[in-house]
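Predict both folds.
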Amino acid sequence: MTATAFRPWLDRSGRLSPLKLAVFLALFAPGLWTFLSYAQGSLGPRPLTEAIHQTGLWAIRFLMISLAVTPLRRVLQWPRLIVLRRMIGVAAFGYAALHLAIYTLDQAFDWRMIVSEIALRFYLTIGFLALCGLLALAATSTDGMIRRLGGRRWRRLHRLVYVIGVLALIHYVIQSKLDVAEPLVVAGLFLWLMACRAVVWLGGDDPGLSFPSLAGLAVAAGLVTAAGEALYYHLANHFDAWRVLGAYLGWYFDRRPGWIVLAICLVLSVASLVRAHRAGARQWRADPRSGAAEAA
């Protein structure tokens, strides 16, 4: 096991990485905030229940951020982002394990009750499956395990993260019950990022992540998110799906998940365009003749 496994704020050469150090410290912030809020009695009338929700929420957020690293490093043309993926993924597992630990404490370590709840409640079952998957990925995330498994088998195993992401999203949406705005936003962003990844897979040497394609995927993700919201409320609460969609044109349209997904994805698409323009400008300054040759 390398030194960086114990000191993740170092880069491969053993030098301090300000980016990795900042992210490493930031990963502890939600847990520290939850602990201090619990100690101060500011988590509401059911503090353990709120702590369960907070740790589970951050587990899913960090899982989705880890899944976003690879697409975003291409979209934003920022290769150094890849060094953060392992750290964020392990943090997602840590918060998920803490989520289960606090739930166990809240149930007064009644193992029979805990096992029966996980087995009989669908959203708890899939949440537990997602946790088991994260455990397998965290346990094999070290350089030593990569060497033991071999690169091909390791990559095949870690592709399970996409299945885990879907399971975590289903768990998140179901347990949220009536307030599904944030879960739908996360699901919409996940859809956009996976679509970007699919474009890269299908594109081969030409990944095709141009601004028009990214913006088109943003519009598609926003529309699917809006349709998903209408379908959810129709199935769960028997609301008229067309009235839910009509709310997207109402005075509070900015609060709707579909619009939020569209806005975030469009911002990332514009950021990609700006990065590409700056990269082209740097290349031209380095060799003006290459730009002239291309124009000719």
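Second protein follows, with its predicted structure tokens after the sequence.
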Amino acid sequence: MPQTVSLSVVVPVKDEAGNAASLAREIAAALKDEGEFEIVFVDDGSSDETAAELLALRPELPLRILKHARNLGQSRAMRTGVRAARAEIVVTLDGDGQNDPADIPKLIRAFRAAANPLVGMIAGERVGRKDTWSKRAASRFGNRVRRAMLGDTANDTGCSLKLFKREVYLALPYFDHMHRYLIALVMREGHEVLFVPVSHRPRGAGRSKYGVWDRALVGIRDLMGVMWLVRRFRGPAEIEEL
């Protein structure tokens, strides 16, 4: 495992046996021409063979595996992975295989082409979603409400395929479920967010950990909290060392 890497890919997983190993191989294949990289899986208290399947791949892939002793949620798992990441640039994606790793180079190219120090994130926006009708409808409604209340300009904050600067992420206020509001929080800090269309695939093994109503109920409370955070911030500081 090289100590200096140019890219860290962070993947939170919970009971994804049957998906995690194939996803790890796909990520490695997608990044074979992108320099030195590491793949950081965070097992968020799985009760199946997720960790065992990943451990079997360590001899062949630049793979690190972190494990929570109990389930703490996707946002905490993501935070664990980003804090452990060795690279300055981090990519995140879901562990169920619905995000296509082949889209990662597209995000990398967009970030490099921007060549703008104010760009703190490249966010994927799913095209042709393979979710159920009810999830797609709920997502469209939720996105309209969120844009109206936060003004984050995003069409799809639920897409976990994102590229960002590690230092930008670590400067954000942490709370559970914050992964759904990363775009608004990054913009709050004065950074620009660029959007890139990405593909979406049907889930492979297992089943979704989220339903429509549980997300809606939690989302209302979280949205109020993020609105408070945005309004109680005076913007980024211009600092000069004297």
